[in-house]
Amino acid sequence: MTFFQKTIKLPPVPRGFHLITPLVADAFPELKALKQGMLHVFIQHTSAGLTINENADPTVRHDLERHFNHMVPENQPYYKHTTEGSDDMPAHIKASLVGSSVSIPITNGRMNLGTWQGIYLCEHRDHGGPRTLVISAFGH
Amino acid sequence: MTFFQKTIKLPPVPRGFHLITPLVADAFPELKALKQGMLHVFIQHTSAGLTINENADPTVRHDLERHFNHMVPENQPYYKHTTEGSDDMPAHIKASLVGSSVSIPITNGRMNLGTWQGIYLCEHRDHGGPRTLVISAFGH
Amino acid sequence: MTFFQKTIKLPPVPRGFHLITPLVADAFPELKALKQGMLHVFIQHTSAGLTINENADPTVRHDLERHFNHMVPENQPYYKHTTEGSDDMPAHIKASLVGSSVSIPITNGRMNLGTWQGIYLCEHRDHGGPRTLVISAFGH
To answer: With contacts defined as CB-CB under 8 Å, which chain A residues touch B4?
Structure first.
């Protein structure tokens, strides 16, 4: 078994759901060395997350953003964590709903995703700035 | 360390939450070879997901389905991704809420689940068809 | 590659989100043996979960608890799983929303978390009692 690990920095993106599959694959050519294995992508932030969803129609990403805003609204009367702006506490909640990592099987040197699957960066802040990922892969 | 990987196809099920623990265990006898390890189950779809929840009382599965429909309703006025039917966009959102994979420790050749835990296939489409899982396990 | 695994029991905590990072690190000194690897923390229960969120301001934990109660209320008219108390079915739903495990990269003998990240025990029952975690780590 082999183990690879690398830290990469993503450029800032606007609030919303963003497809980053090619970015991860390009930053991590180590993937190609594994016949069978696992890829783990971890985001080192608490107001952004990672998920897997449809890689084709951009309206899926639009609707996810709209519905997450509906399900986790800003300015709820019971929020106490409000000093960093009205988008901050909802961002923390959304981050726990999607999670901080995705793990994907590797087969024959590639992520073994379904035809329509891609990795999303879920940016929940209005101005989240650059985001750091720790990417790990292992297998043989 | 050893690494096993296999793709299996699940038969179509109706929309809802379905217990699939025995199905995964039976399809993957390689588990028994590992004294300590990890099992990773990954679904290659974006309108269905996987989660771990109660393996006994079927009303838990019923109530999960009802509440997910309440939390992520069909026909929201802001949905733009509507051409594949009113159950499609909610299915994408629900898939990101539960996630595309579960990972479970392996101890003495078995999934080391709690007494009441089982693996659920979360089928969010009305007619999702067969679903493909990629199962990986590693350890020693 | 090396593989470590250990079961630990957490003392009972009140309903809410609780920071347990030091508890996990202290219970699992095996971490220090790994230069590069993965940590997997798994909870063997279906009415409690694990997530990663902000480790500093306790109002984040407060607001998460308040918003989860808003998003998954008790006593919904469609709940059928009601015999174990009004906090039980919401606890199952919340457990699937946050998930049963977190996985974190290990770098130079430590969890490679972001500055503000910590592991939360999400206790969704009023009186959940002690909770059992299975902790696994592997790498080289």
So the answer is: 36
Residues of chain B contacting A67 with CB distance shorter than 8 Å: 72, 76, 78-79, 93
Contact C102, C134 (CB under 8 A): no
Can you give the pTM of this predicted structure?
A: 0.98
Between A and B, how many CB-CB pairs are < 8 A? 99
Distance CA C107, CA A23 (A): 22
Nearest CA to CA, how far is A67 from chain B (Å)? 8
Alpha-carbon distance of C137 to C140, in angstroms, equals 10
Chains that touch C (3 or more CB pairs under 8 A): A, B
Range C67-73 contact pairs with CB under 8 angstroms and sequence separation of 24 or more:
C67/A72, C67/A76, C67/A78, C67/A79, C67/A93, C68/C94, C68/C97, C68/C124, C70/A76, C70/A78, C71/A71, C71/A72, C71/B71, C71/C97, C72/B67, C72/B71, C72/C97
Q: Which residues of C touch B40 (CB under 8 A)?
A: none
- List, for residues A86-102, the tens digit of each pLDDT value: 999 999 999 999 999 99
Model confidence pLDDT, tens digit, residues B23-41: 999 999 999 999 999 999 9
